[in-house]
Write a structure and sequence with these properties.
This protein has helices at residues 45-49, 52-61, 63-67, 81-86, 89-99, 117-133, 150-162, 173-177, 181-197, 225-231, 264-273, 275-291, and strands at 40-44, 72-76, 103-105, 140-144, 167-171, 204-208, 219-222, 234-237, 240-243. By secondary structure, it is of the alpha/beta class. The protein has two domains: 27-223, TIM Barrel, CATH 3.20.20; 235-291, no CATH class. The protein has a seven-stranded parallel β-sheet. A two-stranded antiparallel ribbon has the order 8-9. Helix 6 packs parallel to helix 7 and helix 7 packs parallel to helix 9. The chain binds zinc ion (ZN). Zinc ion (ZN) binds at residues 254, 256, 258-259, 285, 288.
Length: 299
Amino acid sequence: MIPPLRKKDISKVNFPLYVPQIDVADKGSWFWREGIEMPMIFVPLWQLVLNNRLLSQASSKGLHDFLGFNGKILLSTVMPDELIDKLTKDDYFKLINDLKPDATMVPDNYTYTDAPLYQSWSQTVRLISFANDFLDLEIKLIGLIKGANLRQIYFSLRREVEMNYISFVMPARELFKQGLLNEILPHVLIILKKLCRASGKNPEILIYGIGRKLGYKEVSYSNLSWYLEAKHGLYYKEGELNDMRNEKIRFKECYCEVCRGTMPQDLIDLWIKDPKSCKRMLTLHNLLEWKRGRWAGGH
Ligand SMILES: [Zn+2]
């Protein structure tokens, strides 16, 4: 059953175009230590929950001191299903009070398009109920856009908007893999705007967990792709992920603050001589390329 829903003034997170995710256990992804500035990061809660040593360090200091990051820290609750089932409201509240992020997503759920609908409906009700509980937290809150179909997405969004949620994350990896994201997203954008407009508000949406931009002007993105893809030698340019040997980009100089006129061919040469610094450059280039604004050709 859905509990009686409350309301609270929830202010916007004000997502920039891109919010990188980091890997808490891998300092190679702690880009601010390389002098690159970004206003916000997402820290995946599951990485801490599954690693006692990291969790006790981060809990005793709080995430800001633990990471040494001065921007805003957003907690991501997107996690493996087994953990979703395990964590209670009290667990979340303790974790959040100890870790002290600047904002948190409401707890994730699982809504598979190919599972019986009673499962995704009960998960949808659970999402709403958690979003209601989370109103007791003192930090900024981020609603989730989830559902196995548009009815479920509408059902949960309507209630989240009633509770005054205004910043939303859409975990999109599964939908993207199934080829459903481009079908669903335009509807989601329309639904959410309509729901918010009734109360005179303008929502913000961030697409979470996919490694490419989709061409919608009004959405932000978050992923760890900037880091993971560089490990495989892949190079972002104008919204596309390229093999560095691709003739289209191979001899095009990049003037980001890391490359400073270097072209992919130079990185290929460097990869052979000094793979470690090559990967570092490629990683930071990919991060800056994601940050660099909206590419032409979008709708
Ligand atoms: Zn570059």
